[in-house]
C-alpha cells in the first residue's frame, strides 16, 4: 500500500518500480511466506531523483518460547543506507509442523 491505497496487482509486479511524488508517504509492506504473514507501515520522506527499495529479513528469537519475526525497512539504493528505522514484526499464522526457513 502507498498512502493507504492498494497497489494494483502488487504480488505480480513486485519487481517493477513504483513512481512516488516527492514528500511524505506511508508505505504498507506485507511479508508472506507459506501461511505466515507480517505487516508494517513505514513512513517515508521521498526525495526527487532517489530510488528506494524495501528490505526484508526473517528470523526467530532464541529460547523455549521463540517467536518468528520479520524485519522490514527501506533503503536508498544509491547509498545502501536505511532511510527508515528497522521495524520488527512478529510473524503470525502457520500450523504446527510448518517449515519456516531462517538464514543465519
Describe this structure in words.
By secondary structure, the protein is an all-beta fold. Helices cover 0% and strands 44% of the residues.
Largest sheet geometry:
3 strands, antiparallel
Could you tell me the number of beta strands?
6
**Tally of helical segments:** 0
The helical percent reads under 10%
H/E order of the elements? EEEEEE
- Give the strand order, joined by hyphens, for the main sheet: 1-2-6
Overall mean confidence score, pLDDT? 84
Structural class: mainly beta
Can you give me a brief rundown of this structure?
By secondary structure, the protein is mainly beta. It has strands at residues 23-33, 36-46, 52-60, 68-76, 87-90, 92-93.
Q: What distinguishing features does this structure have?
A:
single chain, 104 residues, 3-stranded antiparallel beta sheet, mainly beta, globular
Could you outline the blueprint of secondary structure elements for this entry?
Blueprint (H helix, E strand, L loop, with lengths): L22 E11 L2 E11 L5 E9 L7 E9 L10 E4 L1 E2 L11
Antiparallel strand pairs: 1-2, 2-6, 3-4, 4-5
Amino acid at each position: 500500500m502507498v498512502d493507504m491505497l492498494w497497489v494494483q496487482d502488487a504480488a505480480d509486479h513486485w519487481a517493477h518500480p513504483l513512481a512516488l511524488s516527492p514528500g511524505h508517504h506511508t508505505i504498507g509492506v506485507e511479508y508472506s511466506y507459506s501461511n505466515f504473514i507480517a505487516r508494517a507501515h513505514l513512513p517515508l520522506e521521498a526525495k526527487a531523483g532517489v530510488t528506494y527499495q524495501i528490505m526484508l529479513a526473517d528470523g526467530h528469537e532464541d529460547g523455549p518460547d521463540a517467536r518468528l519475526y520479520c524485519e522490514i525497512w527501506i533503503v536508498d539504493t544509491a547509498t545502501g543506507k536505511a532511510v527508515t528505522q528497522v521495524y520488527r514484526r512478529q510473524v503470525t499464522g502457520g500450523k504446527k509442523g510448518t517449515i519456516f526457513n531462517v538464514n543465519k
